[in-house]
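User: Quick one: structure for sequence A, then sequence B.

Assistant: Sequence A:
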Amino acid sequence: MAGRALAPFLLAATILAALLATCHAGGIAVYWGQNDGEASLSETCASSNYKFVILAFVYKFGKGQTPQLDLASHCDPSSGGCRGLSKDIQSCQRRGIKVLLSIGGGDGSYGLTSEGDARNVAAYLWNNYLGGTSSSRPLGDAVLDGIDFDIELGAAKYWDRLARDLKNMGKKQQGGNGVLLSAAPQCPFPDEWDSGAIKTGLFDFVWVQFYNNPECQFSSGRSAFLAAWKQWESVPAGKIFLGLPASKDAAGTGFVPAGELNSRVLPLIRGSPKYGGVMLWSKYYDDRTGYSSAIKSHV
């Protein structure tokens, strides 16, 4: 009798524990598109390892330039060869995966010279990749979920204006879901390029690059790492992600073996109310190490 009476209680407690775990569960974001030999976009999403896939990069834009997309050998946008990715993008979205387009990167020709320039770039991104219309949409009819700011070059001007314009365009869309915004700052705080934009409070996700910056990555010690994480927690953004290389070859410094990440690093930050999960650079390297599979149940 006592055992039977306890059973519903134990069941309820188990369900509650599961719900609480789900509430705090993070996801994995991955950059895709910059390397030959990585899995296709449809295969990437079919793996069920990722909640976010970030297409990289629109490496040329602003300063009066016609924006250009580069997805390595996956496709040639100049000949319309990337429009076939539309079906893959829609397949990802049907699985509940958010697909964003990253602008910038560490090697490109981009920058904003004025508020008008920012407005023009926002209009181009809206009409060619988001909810607007254009005869030259490089990725076809698929409507991406948002734009990722991976700004690592040039002057730190007018990025806040670009963020505001993109958000405003999303708000005006009839029946739309708006435009998600993400940023990929370096871990030294505040970021040299993305800081002004992030301060707008418009960013849904900030995946901080805790690599190639020895002073704040985990290899410099728990206290230095946590100090940097807590600074990033203070920004007015939705969720903060721990950005890491998916293999030793993916970055100069900052690689954390999966076992160490699961046992020593994630327990330090998983309880944070702004914790969103882990961002990986990139799908190519993850394919070679199986990193996302090794950390998925701990993120």
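Sequence B:
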Amino acid sequence: MNSARRNELIHRLLAGRCELCESTEGLEVHHIRKLADLNQPGRRAQPAWKHLMAMRRRKTLVICRRCHEDIHAGRLAKPYQK
């Protein structure tokens, strides 16, 4: 089972696309500390990237540099258009 999880992340990396905007350049992996951080009651609506991680039940997201910077700056409310 443990190797299956590693395989899944490796396959996502090898796909070579940002999971938010589908860009193919400058890919990075965004990590969160724990899944419980995604579903905090009493907070405003979740950004699209948090919703995607919660839906997949994954603590990682393969994204491009631009999306990663925007997540950390609090600017990414919804995915970029292609």
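The longest helix spans residues 2-14. The beta strands are 27-31, 60-64.

User: Thanks, that's what I needed.
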